[in-house]
Amino acid sequence: MLRHWAWKIFRPPAATIAGTIEFLLKQSAKTPMTMVLDEFQNAETVEPALVTDLAVLWDKYRKDTQLLLVLTVSDGAGRSMTDGRFSPLCARACGELTLRPFSTGVIKTILTEHYPTRKPDDLLPLFAVTGGIPQYIKVLTEAGCTSARQMIRPVAQLPGPISSGMPKRS
């Protein structure tokens, strides 16, 4: 109910993402705001000129805005959108937080503390399957999948690039 009420009051009068961003930049001159654009590396597939539009809008309003703009990007293509020498957003970041996968040492500690009956051989498959990504480790370990044999079925059934072409078993 509150979300619906708030949306009626603050509904941006814009038909594009760039128009919505401009609206928020103007509003944030009066009221501090935070805007998070998640998976920003996909922005141009949604609105092709968005990265360029964002750079132009940021330059126009940045002195008056109280907007904390957070862009989340994956390594690779996403980083070139914000860090590339010829990127429209180059040199506009005022901070960066880089998240890294857990090391094998951290994964070993997780397994040892939470699953003391696990075998030393369980560390390699867990790291190989998850790549050290905390969320993947959490999903598997909370499901009780701490050995290679236990991981096979849940991983094969997860939606994603690895399992999308695999037939589902009941």
Description:
It is a single chain. The chain is mainly alpha-helical. It folds into 2 domains: 17-91, no CATH class; 104-156, no CATH class. Helix content is 48%, strand content 6%. The chain has 9 helices and 2 strands. It has helices at residues 2-10, 17-27, 43-46, 50-61, 77-83, 104-114, 123-130, 134-142, 148-157, and strands spanning 33-37, 67-71. The chain has a two-stranded parallel ribbon. α2 packs parallel to α4 and α6 crosses α7 (123-130).
Concise synopsis of the structure shown:
With 170 residues, the chain is mostly helical. The chain contains nine helices and two strands; from the N terminus they run H-H-E-H-H-E-H-H-H-H-H.
Number of helices: 9
Q: How much helicity do the residues have?
A: 40-55%
Spatial strand sequence of the major β-sheet: 1-2
Quote the distance from N terminus to C terminus. 39 Å
Using DSSP, what is the number of strands? 2
Largest sheet: 2 strands, parallel
Regions with little confidence, pLDDT below 50 for 5+ residues: 1-5, 161-170
Helix/strand order, N-terminal first: HHEHHEHHHHH
What is the secondary structure topology, with strand pairs?
Elements: H1 2-10, H2 17-27, E1 33-37, H3 43-46, H4 50-61, E2 67-71, H5 77-83, H6 104-114, H7 123-130, H8 134-142, H9 148-157
Parallel strand pairs: 1-2
